[in-house]
């Protein structure tokens, strides 16, 4: 079997103990995915597996066998993703270290909200339409930390993109 990384099939590693993060960074040289805490607490290593966010430091590469993995490099097309543009426009980064994980998490979070999946603080769990407020976004993005304190810009960027999607 193979792991589809950003649209390209790659073989799983020989060592079944290798993390997906190590495969991406050290073998495939996809360095946008960052090593943060290496314990699943900061979100810097967030990638998408079959469209859902995953912490690549806690995921064994072999667990992605037969699945599709998307990193920030795979989100980038010829043109920036709307979230990337919004992060720039709304100062959603300072040092930029957490930004790839933040953007991957936000892409998945917007898809979750669009699908009507509630969060812990969603007021109406039966509603098919999720309204993304600042508080709702804060809750949904709480697994991704920004040590520089750019959270307000990150939330503003996500709100801007969510508003465009709703319009």
**pLDDT averaged residue by residue:** 94
Question: Helix count?
Answer: 6
Helical percentage: 25-40%
Main sheet strand line-up: 2-1-5-3-4
Cα-atom Rg, whole angstroms?
16 Å
What is the rounded distance between the termini? 41 Å
Fold-level CATH name of the largest domain = DNA polymerase, domain 1
Largest sheet: 5 strands, mixed
Poorly predicted ranges (pLDDT <50, ≥5 residues)? none
Q: Please write the string of helix (H) and strand (E) elements.
A: EEHEEEHHHHH
Name the structural class.
alpha+beta
Q: Quick one: overall form? A: globular
CATH uppermost class of the largest domain: Mainly Alpha
Total number of strands: 5
Q: Supply the CATH architecture of the largest domain.
A: Orthogonal Bundle
CATH homologous superfamily grouping of the largest domain: [2Fe-2S]-binding domain
Strand portion, in percent?
5-15%
Number of domains: 2
Explain the layout of strands and helices:
Elements: E1 3-5, E2 8-10, H1 20-27, E3 46-49, E4 52-55, E5 68-70, H2 72-75, H3 82-89, H4 99-114, H5 134-140, H6 151-166
Parallel strand pairs: 1-5
Antiparallel strand pairs: 1-2, 3-4, 3-5
Helix pairs in contact: 3-6
Give an account of the 3D structure.
By secondary structure, the protein is α+β, with helices and mostly antiparallel strands. The chain folds into two domains: 3-75, Roll (Ubiquitin-like (UB roll)), CATH 3.10.20.30; 82-166, DNA polymerase, domain 1. 35% of the residues lie in helices and 10% in strands. The chain contains six helices and five strands. It has helices at residues 20-27, 72-75, 82-89, 99-114, 134-140, 151-166, and strands at 3-5, 8-10, 46-49, 52-55, 68-70. The protein has a five-stranded mixed sheet. Strand 3 (46-49) and strand 4 form a beta hairpin. Helix 3 crosses helix 6. The mean pLDDT is 94.
